Amino acid sequence: MHSSIVIQLPQIIRREATTIAITVCPVTPSFAAEIGDVDLSKPIEPSDLSAIKDAFAKYAVLIFPEQHLSSDQHLDFARHFGPLETTIALFRKDAQLRVSPEFADVSNLNPHNEVWDKESRQRMFQLGNRLWHTDSSFKRLQARASLLYARLIPPVGGHTEFADERAAYDSLPDATKRRLTSLVAEHSIFNSRARLGFTNFSEEERQGMPPVPQVIVRTIPESGRKSLYLASHAGRIFGMPEQEGRALIEELVAYATQRQFVYTHRWRVYDLAIWDNRCTMHRGTEFDDLRWKRDMQRATVCDIANSCEQEGIAVEAA
Ligand code: OGA
Ligand code: MN
C-alpha cells in the first residue's frame, strides 16, 4: 500500500511536465504577444513549435522573455523558421566582426567590446536602423523573420518600434488597394543610407549590393492576409517617374506607421523578439549610444523567394 504510492508519484509529475503547453499572452489584440512556459535553450517539443508558429501567423511580433541563450541556441531556434542569412557587414571592407557571421551585430560596440567612436563608420551605417524598414528587403532574397536577442540594454531609450503592415493595408481605401496592387519598387541599402546623408561607399561596395525589385503589396501564405511591404530601402517605383515613385513611398511609409499600427517594445535583458519581416516594419529609437552599452544580436531567416516571384509579378530589367 505505502510502496505503491511512492511508485506512482514520479509518474504523475512526469505526465504533468510534458503536458504544460506554451502560454500566449497578447500584448496588443492582434499584433504582438508574449510567449511563456517555453525554454528555448532546450530542444523544442513539436507541439510547442507548432503553437509558436500559429501564434506567429496571428501576431507578427512575438516576445520570449527571460531566455538564457548561447549563440548556438539562438541560431538553433532561428533555424526552425528557415535557412539563416549571413551578415552584410562582410560586404563592408572596413568591417571587423565582433560576433559570428550568422548574426547581425546590432550593438553599439566595437570589436574590443567598447562603445563605438562618435565618427565611426559602423555607427554611421547602423543609424539606418533608426529609419522605418524591414530587414534585408535590399537583397533579392529578402528576410522572412528576424530574431533579436537582448544581452545588455541601456537604462533609458533604445526601444524598438514595430508597425503592423497588414493592419495598415486593411485600412486603405479600396481604390488605393487597387492602385498599389502589382506595383514594384526598387530597394537598395544605399537608398536608406543616402536618406541620412551617408554616401561614402566604394564602387566595390556598391557593386556588392545591387538594387533589387520588391512588390509593394504581398500576401502572407500562412494567414492569407495581405500586407504592405515597405522600407526606407525603397527608392523608385517601376513604371513611374522617379520623383513620383519616391513621393509615393514616403507617403505610404508615413501612413503605415501611424500610432494605431505601432507597438513599441521596451526591452528587458534576455528578451528574444521575433518579427515577420514580410508584414511589419520596425525601427530602433534613440539612446545615449556614446555612454551606454546596448548589446543585441540578430539572427535572420531568409524568405522562400523574391517577393515579386511569390506574387507572380514579372519585372523588366531596370
Ligand atoms: C534590427 C533592427 C533596431 C533596434 O535588429 O534589425 O533594426 O532597435 N534593430 O536595435
Ligand atoms: Mn532591422
The biggest beta sheet, please? Answer: 7 strands, mixed
**Low-confidence region ranges:** 1-5, 10-15
CATH level 1 class label = Alpha Beta
Structure summary, number of beta strands: 15
Instruction: Provide mean pLDDT, rounded.
Output: 93
In short:
This protein is of the alpha+beta class. It has helices at residues 2-19, 46-58, 71-79, 121-126, 165-170, 174-180, 189-195, 203-208, 242-256, 307-311, and strands at residues 23-26, 32-36, 61-64, 103-105, 143-152, 160-164, 184-187, 212-215, 217-219, 226-228, 234-237, 262-265, 272-276, 280-284, 295-302.
Task: Give an overview of the whole structure.
The protein is α+β, with helices and mostly antiparallel strands. The chain has a single domain (23-311), classed as Double-stranded beta-helix. The protein has ten helices and 15 strands. The chain has helices at 2-19, 46-58, 71-79, 121-126, 165-170, 174-180, 189-195, 203-208, 242-256, 307-311; strands spanning 23-26, 32-36, 61-64, 103-105, 143-152, 160-164, 184-187, 212-215, 217-219, 226-228, 234-237, 262-265, 272-276, 280-284, 295-302. The strands form four sheets. A seven-stranded mixed beta sheet has the order 1-2-3-13-5-15-4, covered by helices on one side. β2, α2 and β3 form a beta-alpha-beta unit. It is globular. Mean pLDDT is 93; it is low at 1-5 and 10-15.
Which key terms come to mind for this protein?
three-stranded antiparallel beta sheet; 29% helix; 10 helices; alpha+beta; seven-stranded mixed beta sheet; disordered N terminus; 22% strand; binds manganese (II) ion; Double-stranded beta-helix; single chain; binds N-oxalylglycine; 318 residues
